[in-house]
Each structure stands twice: as C-alpha cells, then as structure tokens.
Amino acid sequence: MQGLTDASGCFASIEKVNDPSIRFRPVVVLSNNDGCIVAICPIAKKLGIPKFQPYFKVKWLLQKHKVVIRSSNYELYGDISDKMMAVIARFSDNTYQYSIDEAFSKFVNYEGIIKDWYKYGHEIRRAVWRETRMPVGVGFGHTLTLAKAANHASKKLPDSDGVAVIDDDYSRKHILEQMKLDDIWGIGRKLGQKLSLLGLKTGYDLANRSPKSMRQQFGVTVERTVEELNGVKCLSWDDVKSPKKEIFSTRSHGQRIVNYHDLRKALTSHAVKVCNKVRLQHSLIKKLYIFASSSPHDERYVKKGIMYDFPLATDNVCFVASAIEQVLHALYVEGLPYYRCGVGAIELESRDFQQQDLFLSRENPALMNCYSQINQKFGRGSLQLGSESRQEKWAMRREFLSPRWTTRWSDIPKIFC
C-alpha cells in the first residue's frame, strides 16, 4: 500500500500555528514581493477569495471580509514542514518528502498488521495535529497515482472527512468518477483539454481507455497514468525521488537595482543558493545560466542571459561566484533599472560518476564540506563569500511578514501568565 499525506492550505495554516488570535479568521499568504495570493486557508475559501490573483486586484475584497494578510515566511514554513514530516515518517517503513507540504509513504511490513486503513489515516491526522497543529489530508492506494487521487478525495470531494482509501474497484470508481481530468496526477490543464476532445470528462473515463492507444496519441507518461489508475504499478520509488536535472534561483527585487556591484551581489547570492541545492542531491554543475532583466512593464524592456561552461563540473561556490564576475560586464547595462535576476544550473552531473580531466587540478571536496557544515551548525549565512551582500537592499518586499517564531531568537513567542 502507498500513502500520501498533504497539508491543507499549507502556508496559511502554518501562519495560524503560533498565532492563536488568527486561528479562526480567514488568512491568505502572498507570493514574493507581495505580488499574488498563493495560499488560502479553508475559512477564506468559503468566502470566495480567489487564488493566484494579484494582490492589488483583490485588495478591496480582502478588506471587506477583514482577511488576515501575510507575506511569505519561508523560514517558518520550512521549520514547521520539517516537524510535520518527522511525525509522518513514524507511521511507515519509508517516507519521501515530495514537496514542502506533502509526503509519500510506503507500507511494506504493515500490510498484515493494519486491518483498517481508514482508521489508520485518522491516527496519522490526529498525531500531526497534536504535535504541529497542522491540518492534513491522508490518502491510500495500491499505486502512487491512486494514493494521490485518494489524497485529493480526502480534502476536495463533498463527502470527505480528511481520509480516503482506494483499495477495491468500488472505491476506485467512486472517487475517480468525481475527479476532473486535470485533477489526476500527471494530467495538466492543457493535456486535460486535449483528452476532453476524445469525450473524456472524469478520471474514471481516462482509466477505462486502452493504455496502448493512449501511448500512441499522448506518449508513455499518459500510458503509465492509465495503468496506475487501474492498480498496475508503473512508477517506482526512484522515479518519484530522482534528482533534478535543472536547479534555478530567481527573484524579483523589492527595490530596482541600478548599480553594477549590487547586481553582482544579487547574482552571487542566487548562485550560492543554487550550489547549496546542488550539493544536497550530490550533483555537480557543468553549465550555468546567468540572466537579468528590467520589468516588462517598463518603457525600455531589456533581458540578457549568458551561458557559462565550466571546464570541469563543480559545486564550489568560489568557482561559481568567479564565473559570475567574468560574465557580468557583458550582462550589465549602465542606467538600466533591473527588476529581476537569477542563476540556473541547467546541466547537472552526478558527483559519484564524474569524469576527471588529466590536465586540470582536482578540487578539494573537504573545503565545501567544511563550508556546508559550518552553515548547517551555526545557521545559513554564518559563512559567506565576500561578494555576497549581508544587507540585501535588493531583497524582496515583505510588508506583511509574520515573526519567525521557531527560527529566530528575537521572535520566540512570549507567554504572559
């Protein structure tokens, strides 16, 4: 049996964990630079607050319903997510964190022990709520796609109560008949529109199609989805948790950048974030894409990007920062107000199978290991490059930022008795 546990309105729910004063009020969370609504709590959903809408367009509606507005507090979200995942991991043989708010669970040695998966799902929900105060939905199925469908049913279908199980044909049909095509994992909006031209309307319609005919028309991914919806395991654990082939760090700036050195600091900070993510998945960077642009709404819109090839794939932040220094003169335009910039590792290699070069000196991995260990022990940013900025004037705008209750000493909650 496979399971999927997913938080309900994750970011908005996390905002309520350490602030009881807003626990029973509608809450929305905004994206970077307070641009769009990216998370809505269940109470706000009932008020008809739209998701993914620009904040300035719905500001009047939020004020009308006295909705609590929060900026994205990524430090807090990451910490609460780690605690939630630790609780979920206790209930299965193996757990894989698929995203910040959802985790797959594999049950191998539990099959003969658990008699009622529905009851077991509620045990998981109660444990997560008791220890983290996070509401979650739990779904079980014999394949990863069915587990994903069950999780969707646990939170979205009219008769849902937080747990759903697909363990026979009746439950499979009952749930898939109520799911739209683009609600199925692996079927996006555009692909759903193409499938609808064949007369398909629900997930159950898709499950009844011939897998081979689906492969001929739409490729192997849709074929696997159809097989998985019928209980045939096609996606393995390794398919879900395979390393990323590209890693990017980009951001719009709270204040426009007009200075050469400020742009270098911003790009270097993005490069460091990319290197940290690359090391976590034991990869090395072969090609680096560096770009910067003004706003598309400006009278003069300029976007420039440069590709940098490393002679030997690396995860060394010093080498990556040096690459930015080498190309920045060709990227920078005097007097241009830069609105957005970023760095992307677009060609990654495995650290375990790297082909060395006879004529290039090999890197010392102990240096980067020491760098990572110091920042892990004393906090991110404890050890920085000289070309990074400690005071980010170009950092994103977060006017509604809540305290970082669990990750900053000055923000620890105070209780007055």
TrEMBL record:
The keyword Zinc-finger does not apply. The keyword Lyase does not apply. InterPro entries: DNA/RNA_pol_sf, DNA_pol_Y-fam_little_finger, DNA_polymerase-Y, DUF4113, PolY_HhH_motif, Rev_trsase/Diguanyl_cyclase, UmuC. Transmembrane segments: none annotated. Residues 4-188 form the UmuC domain. CDD domains: PolY_Pol_V_umuC (cd01700). Keywords: DNA damage, DNA repair, SOS mutagenesis, SOS response. Pfam families: DUF4113, IMS, IMS_C, IMS_HHH. Belongs to the DNA polymerase type-Y family. This is Y-family DNA polymerase.
